[in-house]
Amino acid sequence: MIYLAQHKPLRGSWRKKPFSPNSLVSRTKQGGAAILSISVIILFLITFVTLYANRGAILEQKMSANQYNHSGSFEAAQGGIDYTMAWLATGGNASSIAWNAVAGTTGAAWTSNTSYPPYNQRNTTSLPAQTIGKFLVTTTLWRSTTSPKVVEINAISTGDATATVKQIINLVTLKFKVPTIAPLVVNGPISGITGNPNIVGTNSIGQAVVSSAPLSSIDMGHMKDENGNPVAVTPIGFSGTSWDYVFDISKSDMAQIAKTQPGGATAGPIYYYNDATIGSYSPSTIGSLSQPVILVFDIQTTTDCPKINGGQTIVGIVYCGKGFDMNGWGGTKIFGSLIIDTPLTQFTANTELYVNSGNNISPYTASTSAIVTKVTGSWRDF
């Protein structure tokens, strides 16, 4: 006989449970809760990303506005530099009495100030503050007594943003070493004065004639003052050339300034003639009490300075660099100064040298343009 073993279900083995509606409801609730949680998380992430994006846009907008304001402030400061350079190049501004006066004296445009080395003079009076766009621009000028031609311009722009621009320039201006010039300045001995030349008046310090020669080498001959008396002579009044005694500027710089005049080097108020242009000189009455001139004969190769021709009137300064012959000067009147860089050995005409109301024409009233050039590599902004 064969017996079949009876198998009993193992304990804990799976047995299909009967269907229950409650279990379906429970599963549905769990699924809904999960979807809700995921939706909340997604909504939070979307909200966060949106807020972050808006924050970035706001920040970018602020940065753009700051950049715009900074650019505007920088452009205003640069405008202050450009305006100052144009003002300096305008006739007479950088050649005025105030500009050239000793720093700290009455009416001087410059004051002593050592707070900004290597400069020791500050100028804040020449240019007032100005509004460029929506920015206020203040400009200051600095220079050193050892290099007065080198000027640093500082332009500060304030408003919604602040910017500073600095530019160093070379400034070539018409400058004089003496505050008042005698009617006649001669480099060397004086002799051979015949005819009836006169000097009417003296400069502010009582000089009618200044010579580099000693008194023993000076013979004024027929030259008298307006009252027929001997003129006041200052011997050994300077050393070197007459040019360097009077002018605080080289001949090349003077010629360069003259070339910048609208009509060129011989158009006035500086009339600068050299060997190449002396052939075009035509004597004429030039200058006025309100606008004196400077007539320069920078002759190197020809024998004499040209003749002025009789009857002409010149208000200002006449300079003769080489050779001097008064023949043909009859009746010429010079209200100002005649400066000769050679010994005076012939003065035969009845030329008259005048001063104005007891003093000669102030050289600082000659309105000439300055030459302004930027120093390469000196521009800075902050």
Number of domains: 2
Q: List the helices and strands in order.
A: HHEEEEEEEEEEEHHEEEEEEE
The major sheet is characterized as:
10 strands, parallel
Q: Specify the overall morphology.
A: rod-shaped
Q: Which range best describes the helical content: under 10%, 10-25%, 25-40%, 40-55%, 55-70% or over 70%?
A: 10-25%
The overall pLDDT average reads 81
Share of residues in strands: 15-25%
SS-based class: alpha/beta
Over the alpha carbons, how many angstroms does the gyration radius reach?
43 Å
Topology, pairings included?
Blueprint: H1 21-89, H2 97-100, E1 110-112, E2 121-123, E3 130-132, E4 135-144, E5 147-158, E6 163-172, E7 184-186, E8 198-200, E9 209-211, E10 224-225, E11 233-234, H3 242-246, H4 251-259, E12 270-274, E13 293-298, E14 313-320, E15 333-340, E16 352-354, E17 371-374, E18 380-381
Parallel strand pairs: 7-9, 7-15, 8-10, 8-16, 9-11, 12-13, 13-14, 14-15, 15-16
Antiparallel strand pairs: 1-2, 2-4, 3-4, 4-5, 5-6, 6-17, 6-18
Short key terms for the protein model shown above:
2 domains; 4 helices; alpha/beta; ten-stranded parallel β-sheet; 382 residues; eight-stranded antiparallel β-sheet
Structure description:
This protein is α/β, with parallel strands linked by helices and 382 residues long. It folds into two domains: 27-173 and 369-382, no CATH class; 184-365, no CATH class. The protein is built from four helices and 18 strands. It has helices at 21-89, 97-100, 242-246, 251-259; strands spanning 110-112, 121-123, 130-132, 135-144, 147-158, 163-172, 184-186, 198-200, 209-211, 224-225, 233-234, 270-274, 293-298, 313-320, 333-340, 352-354, 371-374, 380-381. The strands form two sheets. Strands 7, 8, 9, 10, 11, 12, 13, 14, 15 and 16 form a ten-stranded parallel beta sheet that branches. Strands 1, 2, 3, 4, 5, 6, 17 and 18 form an eight-stranded antiparallel beta sheet that branches. The chain is rod-shaped and about 130 Å long.
